[in-house]
Amino acid sequence: MTPPLIRTICCIGAGYVGGPTMAVIADRCPAVQVTVVDINQARIDAWNAEDLSKLPVYEPGLDAVVARARGRNLHFSTAVEEQIAAADMVFISVNTPTKTKGLGAGQASDLRWVEACARSVAKAATGHTIVVEKSTLPVRTAEAVQSILAAADPNGGARSFSVLSNPEFLAEGTAIRDLEAPDRVLIGGEDPAAIEALAAIYASWVPDERILRTNLWSSELSKLTANAFLAQRISSINSIAAFCEATGADVREVARAIGTDSRIGPKFLQAGPGFGGSCFQKDILNLVYLCRHFGLPEVADYWESVVQLNTWHQHRIAKLVVQKLFGTVTGKRLAILGFAFKADTNDTREAPAIRICRDLLEEGAQLAIHDPKVEPDQIERDLRLPASEAPDAEAGPTRAALSGEGTWWSSAAVEDALAGADAVLILTEWQHYRSLDWAALAPLMRQPAWVFDARSVVDPAAVAAAGLKFWRIGEGQA
Ligand code: NAD
Ligand code: UGA
Question: Which of 295, 265, 469, 347 is nearest to 58 (CA)?
């Protein structure tokens, strides 16, 4: 068996996964022409922007990789079918969100974009084409992709297809590091030649022992399982954080104590405002849906509780802020530091800040929101509320504010966000928030003022010395 040599790759979907993943493949495989295609013209224009700070995805190190490869063997285009026709290998890296209506609404994956890709490949491909599922998909999706491709040439024409599963494990904010030195690359398939053709691409920079080969279904299911296990750890530590607050224990000490057990390990034990991101919730809900479908309701309930705990935990944080501020935040200014779902990304999908801010707006709070990378119009979409004018920090609560209508505005500087605020909530662990000068910031706030640190990034002693009241996640009163 000689694996076919891959000279041209087309990736459908120029998003958080397709863009960075193909940039790294192009960078590491200069002999392969890589084109990322998308139906979103604005996104493709942004990938082609001369100014690399305007790329549609913010990822540390991405600009350098794109600068090396773009125009040489990395291209971005909206000519979807033309690029499929030219490709030896087509990656499908489109969005697979949770269905919002119809059968399985709220849990099952919406596969309409994946199916559209399979149909585009069926229509436009030429010769032998290896189709790689890069999107995270329900187990057995490859069957549907194979059926659509098989129907393309019912009489066994000159074209042929092999379908592989190659899920992506990168995390946002560390995508380039994760792609350049992955813990493992997973390839599932039935056609050994196709598997080896894809393995040969990765072998340009990934040691062979880290390239795992499995059957299609194990590969698809491993991706859902990995995300479910990671999210489960976060819900576990956040549940213990709440218990620490009730009992006088400290979740950081508990995490250190259990994390030194080599069987548990220290990673993913950071208590916080709950997990966000586009995938953990959607992938677990998909797993829940599949388990029910396959007649395993107890297994479904087990995984569903991971998401339920996360939702409860986010409401809990909003509630305790209200309670500490004398039971009401109506008309009060609160500074929100961080809106992205984690540091080093501009992504706000399922960010904990969304649920927490919505709860506070519902209580009539006036939110000054600061994030170094998230654009105000994105916050507007997430909160489903237009931004207001920033009020005069000296003015005190206005009659409009006390009417109970929650409002928000975007602050370009932390100092502006804190001016006149009764409290500050840290919801994203941006490096900048670790070194804030609390002695200088405290006098800008209305006293008595609180710091709520949901990410354990500030120095409690510095906050106390500045005369501010302090709450942080998982810290009980001893
Ligand atoms: P995204 O929404 O950022 O990007 C998807 C892109 O696909 C969009 O730009 C959209 O316009 C394009 N698209 C949709 N249908 C198309 C079609 N028919 N033809 C051409 N373009 C089309 O999504 P993402 O975050 O990159 O995620 C993609 C997949 O990867 C999902 O299945 C996700 O679960 C998985 N995943 C994401 C991450 C992550 O960190 N974001 C990590 C691992 C896996
Ligand atoms: C996650 C996985 O880590 C990736 O392996 C996977 O490829 C990806 O989902 C996906 O399929 O989309 P990502 O969501 O980008 O990556 O980021 P994570 O670092 O996993 O963080 C997810 C959420 O958990 C964030 O809100 C983060 O703040 C939170 N988190 C993480 C904690 O609260 N505590 C921790 O200890 C770790």
Answer: 347
Reading phi first (left if > 0) and then psi (alpha if -120 to 50, else beta), residue 172 is in beta
Instruction: Say if ligand 1 is within 6 A of residue 112 CB.
Output: no
Q: Ligand 1 within 6 A of 12 CB?
A: yes
List, in order, residues 6 or more apart from 261 with CB less than 8 Å away.
none
Q: Assess whether pLDDT exceeds 90 at residue 393.
A: no
Q: What angle do CA 385, 352, 404 make, to 5 degrees?
A: 40
How large is the average pLDDT for residues 373-378? 96
- Residues paired with residue 59 on neighbouring β-strands, in sequence order: none
CA-to-CA separations, 352 to 124, 149, 266, 365, in angstroms, rounded: 41, 40, 23, 17
pTM of the model: 0.95
Instruction: Look up residue 363 and give its two tokens.
Output: 């209580």
Which ligand 1 atom minimizes the distance to the CA of 16?
26
pLDDT at 400 exceeding the cut of 80: no
Nearest CA, atom 1, ligand 1: 15
pLDDT of amino acid 152: 85
What's the rounded mean pLDDT across residues 12-34?
Answer: 98
Residue 423, H or E segment:
strand 423-426
pLDDT digit string, tens, across residues 435-475: 999 999 999 999 999 999 999 999 999 999 999 999 999 99
- The burial of 71, by beta-carbon neighbours within 10 Å (0-12 exposed, 13-18 middle, 19 or more buried), is given as exposed
Amino acid at 410: S
Residue count of the chain: 478
Ligand 1 centroid distance, CA of 96 (Å): 7
Is 19 close to ligand 1, i.e. is its CB under 6 Å away? no
Round to whole Å and give the CA distance between 166 and 208.
15
Q: Which atom of ligand 2 is nearest to the CA of 168?
A: 7
Q: Is 428 in the pocket of ligand 2 (CB under 6 A)?
A: no
279: annotated active-site residue: yes
Ligand 2 atom with least separation from CA of 274: 33
- Ligand 1: which of 38, 223, 282, 346 to mutate, judged by most atoms within 8 Å of the beta carbon? 38
- Candidate of 179, 221, 227, 285 to mutate for ligand 2, largest count of ligand atoms within 8 Å of Cβ: 227
Quote the CA–CA distance of 444 and 459 in Å, as a whole number.
Answer: 19
- Mean pLDDT over residues 294-317, rounded? 98
The 89-92 sheet, strands edge to edge: 74-77, 33-37, 8-12, 89-92, 128-133, 160-165, 185-189, 211-214
Return the closest-CA partner of residue 223 out of 172, 275, 188, 180.
188
Among 11, 279, 291, 357, the active-site one is 279
Instruction: Give the residue-averaged pLDDT of 115-134.
Output: 97
